[in-house]
Amino acid sequence: MRTETEHTIYLKDYAASPYAIDKVELDVKIGPVTSRIRALLTITPRTGTEPGTPLVLDGDELKLDSIAMDGGPLPLTAYAASATTLTVSEPPARTFVLETEVTLEPEKNVKLMGFYRSGGTWCTQCEPEGFRRITYYLDRPDVLAPFKVTMSADKALAPVLLANGNLIDSGDLEDGTHFAVWEDPFPKPAYLFAMVAGDLGSIHDEFTTMSGRKVALGVYAAHGKQDECLWAMDSLKRSMAWDERRFGREYDLDVFNIVAVSDFNFGAMENKGLNIFNDKLVFVKPDSATDDDYYNVERVIAHEYFHNWTGDRITCRDWFQLCLKEGLTVYRDQEFTSDERSRAVKRIDDVKTLRASQFPEDGGPLAHPARPDRYKEINNFYTATVYEKGAEIVRMLATLLGEAGFRKGMDLYFERHDGDATTIEAFIKVFEDANGVDLQHFQTWYLQAGTPEVTIADSYDAASQTYKLTLSQRTAPTPGQDAKVALPIPVKFGLIGPNGSPMSWSSASGDVRGDDMLVLEGASATFEFKGVPNKPVPSLFREFSAPVRIVSAATQADRLFLARHDSDPFNRWQSLQDVAEALIVDAVAGRVWSAADVTALAEALEDTVTSKSLDPSFKALALGLPPEQLLARTIGTNVDPDSIRAVRLKLVGELVAHLAPALTAAYKENRSTAAFSPDAAQAGQRALKNQALALLVVGGAAGGAQLAREQYDGATNMTDRFVALSAAVQGWTGDAEAMLGHFRTMYTADPLVFDKWLALSASVRADGVIERIRAILADPSFPANNPNRLRSLVGSFAMGNTTQFARADGAGFRFVAEFVADVDTRNPQVAARVLTAFPIWRSFEPVRMAAAEGALTALRDAGGLSRNTADILERTLAG
Length: 879
Ligand code: TRP
Ligand code: ZN
Prior knowledge:
single chain; binds zinc ion; alpha+beta; eight-stranded mixed sheet; binds tryptophan; 41% helix
């Protein structure tokens, strides 16, 4: 294991590079086994660089074949080359051209960073530090250059040759090879470089921008998959139109291409003009993809497209600023989905994700600010905090400034920083300048880790008709940040009167903005409302206006009142969650609910399901009880996942005993014989029907298992089939095993559907699941290097099947630790990510805690881990 300071990179040490790269010309000869990269870099010392300052280029597993300067040879004494650096000791004090050649073996690159081969297709992944695995370079985001790329390959093996920018030349060469020249006029950092070569099918379309320019659009994928790319193309066109409408952002090149590949470490990548996607985020068709898959494809296509302005045209100065592009772009894709679908449903979904992934991160050993100030391995900072909390921070900015003020700031951002590699400070400054406000305190959201806990107290004085609300905040220490400051917290709110309608007030004191927002700036603040005729029920944090934990003494009756009457759908949903959570948490602590408690919740749920005004997708969410992991987080310490699961299932059973007729009715009413369409309305109906089914099965309603079986057998689309199977597996019904077997036989040929089977197989709660997973892994036909397969199987086990992962006998922990050690030798990024299932280990009761610690220390003591995995492990064990 490495020591504390080795390899740590600090934000405070940032300095521009002594040299700039004015121009990059790459000549890439792709061969069946080896590929040769010749790079011509035009380099100029930056003003202020001392003559004779060495030029140090980054490399990673490279071997230099040849080097020249300004067309002539360079003496051996003038440079030093290793796998990780190329140093030219005394470059000229003027512009010069450095020429290098390296040979790569893409087939052997199983890390999937740099230039690699996926299912026969050659492709690249350069963010964050993959370009240095292709050629020696100043591989940092603040070195921007225009790229010109000449690619050549055997025409039969690779009829398609793609790179960033516009195609400026192409043609045939001797011996069956051909070439293409791509030029990207927009200076860009190397992490946005991309090229693809292979025998691919494609679909093509066109988009006319708001100024009337025509853009040629293409989606490339394995032959035969074209019909599965149509939704991606449709999503792309809608994204392009939305960015024009909502942010005035027009696309800038003549071409925009998307390529789907099967081996990919992440979701997708925003390379300039040539986005590369994990194929699971491109391919959809009704009989193999679910509504969730359609939603994810649309969302990620939009996300990567939006990066063209927030990421590519304006990029990051250094990797500490990652959330400058990621948080902002997630915010933008969230808004896109909200505008295209249901805003309320999208918000609830996003908050569920935030609580499931970011809150645990922020409250555990891996906690870090949205803008970290140090890292050992930047790949480990593509986190829920950078992405999701980063988006929440931007959302708060929009909430505080209002839509018009936010847009003014964004306009100024694009105007002022186009072409820049910039920082969070510069981003905040545009909103200050555009709105004439001071956001220095607000900026702290980016710098401070941890989730603030906001405690609410209120009182009502009937005599003076005064309602008093006191909010106080506290953030627990996080690794490396013991002292926390109070943050500015926007609280969207309303007061609700006894008859369920909104209440107004004659005057208010404290930072009350308009009639729907409070701002808590300090550790604590009291807001006083005069002229309030009755005791109100407050609805606070409407739309989840800040990423905080809320501690309130609200009674179950108040919560159920909000669930029925709040005009804010988010808080209606939240109130139902709170009621259920309180029942379960109390029962786990030994204070079991009464029959009346369950009846009250069941009636509120029934009113929700039978409501004529609420839409089906909202109802589906309202019926979802808090997940086990969230309950474990709320309980916090001494967690026994088996008892949480048992209590939660008991509550589901008792609720379903009340709700079965309403659920059955909802199930029947939302069945449809219409032709499949992925639109939000039809998907919402399916979601409600399928949520009803899942509850009937898991809640043990008579006929539930049978219904799942029937839906599975009769399904005409993957959503219905897969949900029926999941319900059977979750409830572990009599024929669940047989259904799983049938599903496997039917879909082994389609890897993305096979992933669904893998994930479900790993989610079985019964003993024996670890042996089941081991057997799947041991099958010689299992693609042991494919990240999607590995994540579907072991990732979903570690992250989702807590009772088996955290078995008291330690078998789950040991299995995952051994898996991490094995995969780490091939793909450190995948290994490190699976290891992030462990940081909750200290919340378990002592037996499980000791078992987890044993598995982690064994992994550490075996040694030989990659920097990625060692970094996560070290932080997980620390503290
Ligand atoms: N920038 C990409 C995105 O937001 C994600 C990304 C980061 C990535 N590192 C990667 C993708 C490595 C693939 C591989 O959407
Ligand atoms: Zn992104």
